[in-house]
Amino acid sequence: MTEVTPASESHRRHDPEQIKRKRQGRRLSTLSRRLSTARIGRYLAFLLLTVTASLLPMVARGQGTPVAQAAPSAAPMFWYLLAAAVAMLVPVGLVLIGVAGLERDRAWNAALGAVAAVSLAGLAYWAVGFALQFGGIGLAYARPELRGLVWEWSPLPADWGVGWGVAGLSGWLLSGAEVTALVYALFLSHLPWLFTATLLPVMALRGRAPAVATLLIALLVGGIVYPLAGNWVQGGGWLAALGRNIALGHGFVDVGGAGTVFLLAAVFGLVALVVWAPR
Question: pTM for this structure?
Answer without folding.
Answer: 0.73
